[in-house]
Specification:
Radius of gyration: 24 Å
Number of helices: 13
Strand content: 15-25%
Distance between the termini: 30 Å
Helix content: 25-40%
Largest sheet: 5 strands, parallel
Strand order of the largest sheet: 4-3-2-8-21
Number of strands: 22
Oligomer: single chain
């Protein structure tokens, strides 16, 4: 018997959900599994974990509940373990704070402390042929602290790298005065938000809205400037019919649509998740501005349909040149102390990681099958016998729909990948075929359709 080595790249919510599923099933995949994580913990976006920031999805869309409500890894299990369950129930909240949900993820990661290698960055993956002639995958690993580089082999690799903060090159001119929203709180703690601070925020999405609210809550901030290429601000459409889009069953329907229909749907539903702000945050911003106006001041300045044409350091401040979209003349020149770029995230890190394998790409996205396995385009590897496999989670927006970029559907997706890993775990070297395994679903409540 030959056991397959499984390597998980990233310890974010997607791979944590996969670990919880394998643990529930008592799967032997865990015996030869390792997780690489470049961060030093499983904390979730600590740079924007404001005290009053809440999830935009229901607490039921955690790592396990929709797959198995009786799982020991649900958000409710976390609250029970921390002796917070009764108190949380009495808050009447369906949307926990980001900080509390981050604590939940760290709590789950603690169950797999012997599997997760923090401070280890997976740089790239490539094929290598074993002495037996069978192919395997080799992942180049960099130690974040020392910079040392090593290699590790695996038969199955599950990639969930997360998205990289995107900072426009023309704005990244001064690391002391320019910060991406994902790292905002570290700058705030360093004293940048002080008396008479003038802060500009670029962007029109949820992060921008939450940062603007935070700044207006701090009365010592003298001016809050918001610059956006679109209308400021648009409310998130979160009606229950829209929320149905962010479920695993809907992602299965979405995957069957023709390409043009998928693209049209994603365009039509952008305001359900992108470049929009939830109603509670918008109301808070408006109320805070009104309180300022009652006191005879107005610290909030909005510049919709505007772009920054130049940003540069000037003595002890920072200067922005603004221009209206479609105009040829500058609209304004502003002196500020800090520029916060709520400019979103780039979703390309997984492409560079997998590039040496030359996977099949369509419409600038990797092609995956119904089990989230990447089409490596290597016909020789698909003839017979054991072959290396790569699975991709959280990076198939165009193929699997809007759930791919959110917490919605994580629990069910994890079950699909877990089943694929388990079905291939034990191989017969002679025939090179998977053994027949018992049904992977541990309870009647955890059934997931994979077709």
């Amino acid at each position: 018997m030959q056991k397959r080595k499984t390597l998980l790249v990233g310890s974010g919510p997607a791979n944590l959900a996969l670990l919880t599923c394998l643990k529930e099933w008592g799967s032997s995949v865990l015996d030869s599994l390792e997780v690489l994580e470049r961060r030093d913990s499983a904390e979730w976006h600590p740079g924007i974990a404001f005290e009053d920031s809440r999830l935009q999805v229901s607490l039921f869309k955690d790592l396990a509940f929709l797959r198995n409500p009786a799982s020991p890894f649900t958000f409710f299990s976390f609250l029970h373990d921390r002796e917070l369950l009764y108190h949380f129930i009495h808050t009447n909240e369906l949307y926990p704070s980001r900080k509390l949900f981050s604590d939940y993820l760290v709590w789950v990661s603690g169950f797999f402390a012997n599997k997760i290698c923090f401070g280890k960055e997976a740089v790239e993956v490539r094929f290598r042929e074993k002495p037996s002639g069978t192919p395997t995958l080799v992942v180049t690993v960099r130690d974040v602290s020392s910079g040392d580089v090593s290699e590790t082999e695996a038969d199955d690799v599950v990639v969930s790298l997360g998205h990289e903060p995107y900072l426009p090159q023309e704005l990244a001119v001064d690391p002391g005065r320019v910060v991406h929203s994902n790292f905002f709180l570290s700058h705030a703690n360093e004293g940048m938000i002080n008396a008479n601070a003038r802060v500009a925020v670029v962007g029109s999405g949820q992060s921008a809205g939450e940062i603007v609210r935070f700044l207006l809550q701090h009365r010592e901030v003298s001016e809050v400037i918001v610059v956006g290429r679109r209308h400021l601000f648009e409310q998130t459409d979160d009606n229950p019919f829209v929320n149905d889009f962010y479920t695993y069953p809907h992602s299965l329907k979405f995957a069957k649509l023709p390409r043009d229909d998928r693209n049209r749907f994603l365009t039509d539903t952008r305001n359900t998740n992108f470049s929009s702000v939830t109603k509670d945050v918008l109301k808070s911003i408006y109320d805070l501005r009104f309180e300022d106006q009652v006191c005879g001041r107005d610290r909030l300045r909005l510049f919709p349909y505007t772009e920054i044409t130049a940003a540069k350091r000037v003595e002890d401040s920072f200067r922005l040149h603004l221009r209206g979209i479609g105009s040829r003349q500058d609209l304004a020149t502003l002196e500020i102390d800090l520029l916060v770029c709520a400019t979103g995230f780039s979703n390309r890190r997984h492409l560079s990681f997998l590039q040496p394998l030359q996977p099949l790409i369509e419409d600038a996205a990797l092609v995956i099958d119904e089990s989230f396995e990447v089409d490596l385009g290597q016909t020789a590897l698909r003839r017979s016998g054991p072959r290396p496999r790569v699975f991709l989670m959280n990076h198939s927006f165009g193929l699997r729909g809007p759930t791919e970029h959110t917490l919605g559907g994580l629990a069910e997706r994890a079950a699909v990948v877990a089943k694929a890993l388990q079905d291939w775990q034990v191989l017969q070297p002679a025939q090179g075929r998977p053994e027949t395994l018992p049904a992977a679903w541990p309870t009647r409540n955890s059934r997931v359709e994979t077709k």
